[in-house]
User: What shape does this take?
Amino acid sequence: MSPTLPLLVAVPLKGAADEICYAAADIARRSGAQVTLLHVMKLPPGVPASATVESKGTSLSAADLLRQDATRHTDRLVELLRSLDVDTERVLEFGAPSETIVEVARQIGAWMIVVGDERRSGLNKLFQARHIDGILAGSPCPVLVVPAAETVPEELLSTGQSQLAAEVDG
Assistant: This one.
């Protein structure tokens, strides 16, 4: 049996995570790749990882609380990918998103990175562009940027739906 190709899929906890996973699942099934689902966590400025936080009657470190929240949110994405017959593992890391994504891609020997481009405006759009530029500049492999669903032109969506219906009927 040939070794599986690692496909790194970096997801946010909100936004385009589903679109990113569907695109990654399509690539993984066609290529036989194993998906490494990555979420990069970042502590708020000035909050040390060891800071204690009270949550639901339990004391947790800030880092543990973030990891717990990320695990809960990514559980659904891991199950989504597995339900699409994609071999998936989850990795949660702390750090600067662009640098951490590139570092994990190198560590696992990824042949491709899949990220999302969320629909944003103003300064958020500038920060998102910097984030993607950082990944593109440092990546050891090709990067696929999946647009948010709202940015896909309606005529492409309707054409795709018509083609899919024709294939199913046909």
